[in-house]
Design goal:
By secondary structure, this protein is mainly beta. It is built from one helix and ten strands, in the order E-E-E-E-E-E-H-E-E-E-E. It is 7% helix and 51% strand.
Length: 140
């Protein structure tokens, strides 16, 4: 008899930054890892080997609150004091248990977006922080 594995749902997650849980993220972009192939020839045919690993930037979006954490972290970068942190994105199942986690190693902000302003809108003001990192690992 075949065992059916249910895929995880993407709407239930949490984000921790240096082991401090941050709340209220409306969206988190997915972390990507890519290795550009390098081609070389010793003989025919040419061979390919993995090149430099590249890690995508990850964007965190949340409703703007009285917490200055995002802009404070970005200000550290402006002041040339980069404070690298560990960021963990964890999917949570319907019972509240951790399903899968992605750890961003040595992450720091490369871009901060303040919310857009519109006097005719009733939407929540969203701020975002784009992070670069030096490694990504996935755990179950």
């Amino acid at each position: 008899m075949a065992y059916v594995i249910s895929p995880f749902k993407k709407y239930n997650y949490r984000v921790t930054i240096d082991e401090t849980e941050e709340a209220g993220f409306s969206e988190v972009s997915s972390p990507d890892i890519a290795a550009d192939p390098m081609e070389y020839r010793q003989m025919n045919p040419a061979r390919k080997t993995p090149g430099i690993l590249k890690y995508s930037n990850v964007t965190l979006k949340r409703g703007t609150t009285d917490s200055p954490a995002f802009i404070n972290w970005m200000t550290e970068v402006q002041n040339n004091t980069i404070n690298r942190k560990t960021v963990v994105i964890t999917l949570v199942d319907d019972e509240g248990k951790d399903s899968a986690s992605w750890q961003l190693k040595k992450a720091w902000p490369t871009k901060y977006n303040a919310p857009d302003f519109n006097s005719t809108s009733k939407e929540v003001a969203i701020e975002s922080l784009e992070l670069v990192c030096e490694g990504i690992t996935r755990t179950m």
